[in-house]
Amino acid sequence: MNYQFPLERLSAYQTPFYYYDLDLLTQTLDCITKEASRYGNFHVHYAVKANVNPRVLSLIAQKNFGADCVSGGEIEAVLKAGFPANKIVFAGVGKSDKEIRLGLRTGIACFNVESVPELEVINQLAQRQHCIANVAFRINPNVGAHTHANITTGLAENKFGISMNDMDKVIDMALQMKNIKFTGLHFHIGSQILVMDDFIALCQRINELQDKLEARGIHLENINVGGGLGIDYKQPDKNLIPDFATYFATYAEHLNLRKGQELHFELGRSVVGQCGALISRVLYVKQGTNKQFAILDAGFTDLIRPALYHAHHLIENLSSDAPKKRYDVVGPICESTDVFDKNVKLNETKRGDIIAIRSAGAYGEIMASQYNCRKLPKGYLF
Ligand code: LLP
User: 33 and 148 share a domain?
Assistant: First the structure.
């Protein structure tokens, strides 16, 4: 399939804005469902942090995905979008009392707990609300990932999860608590991972931990391996739908699941990344000393990934087919890091041209800010 920009419709909207291709999102969701359902016990939760556009969320809910939330705000957003509470998991190192109460009151499927003090608070609050909280422990597996350092999460130096050495102790504590039901283990080693060996290393670690627990007579109902599958930012059109077949097959082959055990995934970027593009107009083309700048009306307030992670996004001029020239593509924000990319080959560009910054469906609109008193970008889905 091809990513087609409906240029006429796009021209009608005030730039900058996010455009989401409904067909591509639908096909991606259907592909995930098809590939995961080859294995009867695989369950996919959409990692809501990647994109909470209400129409994106409700389509994902209609396709029967679960939701992985990291705040009370996300829980409210997914309930509103139609996700059932019993398909919501709630992670995060710093859950507030109010957020925990919301999770308990609405009856979410599971709290992914990241520390002993958090476990104690959940037990207390569940006692006060006369309910039982399902709890999985997020274990820091000390497994590296071939990705940007800022989005690696599974190393001992990261703030996430409970260390493997403390695992037995916290499980024993949980088993003693009256208002806690211990259900399993949770992991997440990082994001934008394209090397399957990283996921294999995680599987091996989980196998070791599971053997250890089993020797102590502890059985896990479910294992949650988080998300992390990356997308092709360089050549999105070649790989509009990530290789979910290989991804799920990797886990099926390398993880020793026990009979009746469920395997949960929390996929964000790979679900929504390729369906979105940031659409912007060229305000000015400016001749610099040794280069030309294409100055857009979008800036890092609309898409912060290049400034924050040196992330690469393919940039295209949708309204020109003149021969290509080189430009530094920049935004209007008063900061030198407000650069989308340097030395980019674009069809010759002039004021008013429409520019697409591709693969921006994940961690784009949701990470926008109002710095410089700018308006938040809107998102349209068609
Ligand atoms: N589960 C947990 C516990 C997570 O922390 C994350 C992402 C996910 C699942 C989803 O990971 P994904 O499938 O999307 O890789 N803003 C950064 C990415 C931060 C990811 C944070 N955690 C970026 O723009 O690259």
Answer: yes
